[in-house]
Amino acid sequence: MELKNRPRRLRSTPELRKMVRETRIDASSLIYPMFVMDGKARVDEITALPGQYRYTVDMVDPKIEELLKAGVNSIMLFGIPEHKDETGTQAYAEDGIIQRAVSYIKNRYPELYVITDVCLCEYTSHGHCGVVCECGRRHDVDNDKTLELLSRTAVSQVLAGADMVAPSDMMDGRVAAIRSALDNNGFTNTPIMSYAVKFASSFYGPFREAAGSAPSFGDRKSYQMDFHNRREGIKEALLDVEEGADIVMVKPCMSYLDMIRDVYERTDIPVATYSVSGEYAMVKAAAAKGWIDEKSIMCEMAVAAFRAGASLYETYYAKELAECIKEGRIG
Ligand code: PBG
């Protein structure tokens, strides 16, 4: 029997190609990262993220309506406070930017699933993700002191109405600390999506410009992961699962698809991935030059993340992707 034509038959018509597709994506798996800032009546474009903005709370409505219309039902909020200090007090202030934004958005759009980023770097004057040690090495972050503040941050965000919290700080033991703080406050049903496998990455560059959160000294290498290490990534994910994470995230996405697959295989909870600011910025820049086809690149990147094993995909392209899914371009 002649076998060599079989695969070709499966590729022969668009209908059949679609019938046998191995990876399917749906807009309900998309998360849109959104920046909110203190102040009034302002929407500022982020230079290194063309088409992405920082919004004051009173200006978020058109964007949210646009997302919902496109079929994007989930956002992750990042706060940019006017006031930053050594211990990031605005991260856990009752009337902090995130707390006000969440409560406004959840009251107006109860159908929107709101996830909050739990980290101190946008709120500290030095830009590190935690409290900086007074003793020891200058660049060290005091892990345990930071846990207490992260727990307070998470509880205050959930009190304001957040549906899920996403710690991105990479301190050791933070999932367990946040879990027990949430439980003690009666939020036993609020899930934690942990940025378990977060590499110290230059792909975060444009985000740091957006949030004004670049560290003023040192770097994040003592708490974010070394990108040479794959097995350490699995270890981080397993630890977070043990501590009670409901979803684990791999970040960045495009250069870390192997990690997505590893974590997918080694854990039994959903894997999320974040296609970060640098990935978006590169596509935008090349597209602006006319060097690549933006839409197809965006679609290909997204499908690759799902193919690798992600169930959730966070991206600045969430709305455009949802539109492509609707049009049947991917999905
Ligand atoms: C906060 C945080 C960062 C990102 C998400 N949460 C920045 C960082 O760790 O430096 C990056 C997201 C992006 O680049 O789009 N810790």
Task: Please explain how this structure is put together.
This protein has about 325 residues and is an alpha/beta fold. It has a single domain (about 25-325), classed as TIM Barrel (Alpha-Beta Barrel), CATH 3.20.20. The chain is about 40% helix and about 15% strand. The chain is built from twelve helices and ten strands. The chain has helices at about 5-10, 15-20, 60-70, 95-110, 145-160, 175-185, 205-210, 230-245, 255-265, 275-290, 295-310, 320-325, and strands at about 30-35, 45, 55, 75-80, 115-120, 165, 195-200, 245-250, 270-275, 310-315. Strands 1, 2, 3, 4, 5, 6, 7, 8, 9 and 10 form a ten-stranded mixed sheet that branches. It is globular, with a radius of gyration of 20 Å. The chain starts with 5 loop residues before the first helix and ends with a helix. The model has no long low-confidence stretch (mean pLDDT about 95). The structure holds ligand PBG. Ligand PBG binds near residues 119, 121, 207 and 208.
